[in-house]
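ok so for the tutorial part 2 we go from a plain amino acid sequence to predicted structure tokens. step 1 is just haveing the sequence, like this:
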Amino acid sequence: MAYYGNNYSQKLTQKENSYLEDALQMENLALTKYNVYADQCQDSELKGLLFSISKNKRQHADRLKQLIGQSGSSSTQQFQ
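step 2 — the prediction. this is what the tokens look like for a chain of 80 residues:
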């Protein structure tokens, strides 16, 4: 797969797509955990940090979904 800016010159291979789907599952799990930890946290500074990390994980998961969607995979629906 060749990458030029935001454009990919080829579709993802099955192995690359599988890797992205696994990464998406891990991001979603981490996102859920950070939200739970933040909700349980008493320290406002730490709570803010955990929510900030959660937001970053959401952005990363959204980008992974976008890449998987561009590859033409239909299995991303399980992550929405």
